[in-house]
Amino acid sequence: MRWFRRNAAAASRFRLLYATDLHGADRTFRKLLNAALAYEAHAVLIGGDLTGKVLVPFVRQPHGGWLAAIDGEPRLFPDDRAAEAAASELADQGVYVLRCDPDTVERLDGDPAFRDAVFLRLMQERLAHWASLAQERLAPRGIRFLWNCGNDDPLELDPFLADLPGAEFLEGRVVPLVGRVRVASVGAANLTPWRCPRDLPEEELARRIDAVVAQIPEPDLRFAVFNFHCPPYGSGLDLAPRLDETLKPVVVGGVVETVPVGSTAVRAAIEQYAPQLGLHGHIHESRGAHRLGRTLCLNPGSEYREGVLRAALIDFDGDAVRNYLLVSA
């Protein structure tokens, strides 16, 4: 009887596909699953901001059809088929559609608690669908699917995501990735002008980070991956438009002025603990790579509204990052 030895070099290699800031965009998520298969990834990780920001009511009309306001313009869809096509197109952009009657629209307008509850339900439905797709398409091929929330995502999502089959929820945890490589995850960010659900003062963010990193055995810190949604301050991965008092971008000489808006707590943690890799997002327009000491920091960026997938492929050889590539689809 013949026997075969497994190729040790091939067995020691591991490929991670990382994306972030999908903001509910169905098309971008489908592209992510396709990319996992095309690039032969061993694991997929979404770094945060899973949910969308816009809800569009489709209001049933007395004589049939649906009326909606899309980008401020009224649109009448004559039948269910036309409405479904429009709703699918909006979902590809990260928008939630609610089919309802005029009374519900009035309540959405006047009852913030009701509006938040509807938003949360629609978010949960889409995320449950995504987890089901990942389980259907990735799990049979042995591809792990991991995700975390970001500062835009409601806190109420955490227990829901923790119980979803087909996905590993990472917030506040350290999970093994390959060999001695562990992923430590914090989805919060430093304070923004919009006071998002997971915005924190830098001091509190630092405490959150320290509590998570403490779960990693000290000898393995050098192999760690910090999946921190917010990029480190002054890394070039955190450049965003400077805003005036009305939250409009400041334009100087016809060019939008940019400033670093990342987290000093994240930077301090990277400098103190020196993990081998930092995975970040949050600032969609700051796609790139930067080294802080020995730590490779990546922000793949985001163009979810356009249906473009921005992602990073990271190859590990044994316990160490061997190389990376920023990709688009």
Secondary structure blueprint with pairings:
Layout: H1 8-11, E1 13-19, H2 26-38, E2 43-46, E3 54-60, E4 66-70, E5 73-77, H3 80-92, E6 95-100, H4 102-110, H5 112-137, E7 144-147, H6 157-162, E8 168-169, E9 174-178, E10 181-186, E11 189-190, E12 199-200, H7 202-213, E13 225-228, E14 239-241, E15 251-252, E16 255-256, E17 258-260, H8 264-273, E18 277-279, E19 288-292, E20 295-299, E21 310-317, E22 320-328
Parallel strand pairs: 1-2, 2-7, 3-6, 7-8, 10-13, 11-12, 13-18, 18-20
Antiparallel strand pairs: 1-21, 3-4, 4-5, 9-10, 14-17, 15-16, 19-20, 21-22
* Strands, total number: 22
Helix content: 25-40%
Low-confidence stretches: 1-8
Radius of gyration, in Å, reads 21 Å
Average pLDDT for all residues: 96
Structural class: alpha/beta
Biggest sheet layout: 6 strands, mixed
By CATH, the topology of the largest domain is: Purple Acid Phosphatase, chain A, domain 2
Strand percentage lies at: 25-35%
Describe it for me?
The structure is a single chain. The chain has 329 residues and is α/β, with parallel strands linked by helices. It folds into 2 domains: 13-51 and 115-328, Purple Acid Phosphatase, chain A, domain 2; 55-111, no CATH class. The protein is built from 8 helices and 22 strands. Strands 8-7-2-1-21-22 form a 6-stranded mixed beta sheet. A 6-stranded mixed beta sheet has the order 9-10-13-18-20-19, covered by helices on one side. A 4-stranded mixed beta sheet has the order 5-4-3-6, with helices on both faces. Residues 1-8 have low confidence and may be disordered.
